[in-house]
């Protein structure tokens, strides 16, 4: 609880003066005012979050949190549970989608076992922070105890604190956990009170009858557990997941350390939602990487007040969208840092 309370007490709204300073600097660059569109927003927000107009490093890291889900026993995914472990090995071998896209933007992928139902021993490259061997079946009772949820949140906070020490410029979220779109839909349903059918989609690609069953399972989970939307840790513990908790902690920890955090798709946004329900100023520190195909994602983004950077019809997770968006945020910040001003380039200014 100590790490969580410390992080919550450190989070402050970003300084609007920094936003204005960054925009003034952008407005002196050799271009019509505002002509670089959202790249200017990324630069402005990055500067205000991190407190610097000229970052000296571009070190980027994506945390891919892996965990299993007891609710898989209810037939909510198109894939078997074993795929979680198999994909962890794929990440470590560098062969997964997130590895390819992270390499493309020169980001590092760090894989965190926060709750996989497998003993990895001391597998090289894997960050072992296992809180439990998966969650319990949330359709029958709480997925986690409150203590487990807090411990998993604190894993994410600790990793964010480590980023601060390492001088990381930007962190990204990612996840792997067969079944994890189910707790993600349950979380957004618990916070918003919207109907489960409007928030639940096909995840890995389930058919119509499996989708109907998934809706029923989530409705049952909410009825059995009665998560309290005013108590985000209660929601997380009862109908969440260990990787979702790790992501929520990472997002909180990044906000506490003034590190811009790029939130991936549906499952990652469920984690960010938990973080923002714990502290509303968290919203100011995150970038929503992309609009996921999952139908509940737009509702999550709306509650976060976040405008997704990309819409590429993606629905993979792992941190794939975060990787791509990081490249664009970095491009915006490079405009702020590297582009010539009218004065430097001897270009005449316009009159508006
Ligand atoms: C091979 C494979 C790689 C993945 N990488 C991410 N996911 C994504 O799909 C899962 C969520 O969907 P559901 O709730 O339907 O199980 C998560 O593991 C998520 O990261 C994958 C899924 C599969 C099958
Ligand atoms: O949007 C995502 O991140 C997503 C959607 C479906 C399955 N896995 C991930």
Automatic annotation (TrEMBL):
GO terms for molecular function: nicotinate-nucleotide-dimethylbenzimidazole phosphoribosyltransferase activity. It comes from the Bacteria. GO terms for biological process: cobalamin biosynthetic process. It is an enzyme of class 2 (transferase). Keywords: Cobalamin biosynthesis, Glycosyltransferase, Transferase. Pathway: Nucleoside biosynthesis; alpha-ribazole biosynthesis; alpha-ribazole from 5,6-dimethylbenzimidazole: step 1/2. The active site is at 318 (proton acceptor). It catalyses: 5,6-dimethylbenzimidazole + nicotinate beta-D-ribonucleotide = alpha-ribazole 5'-phosphate + nicotinate + H(+). Catalyzes the synthesis of alpha-ribazole-5'-phosphate from nicotinate mononucleotide (NAMN) and 5,6-dimethylbenzimidazole (DMB). Belongs to the CobT family. This is Nicotinate-nucleotide--dimethylbenzimidazole phosphoribosyltransferase.
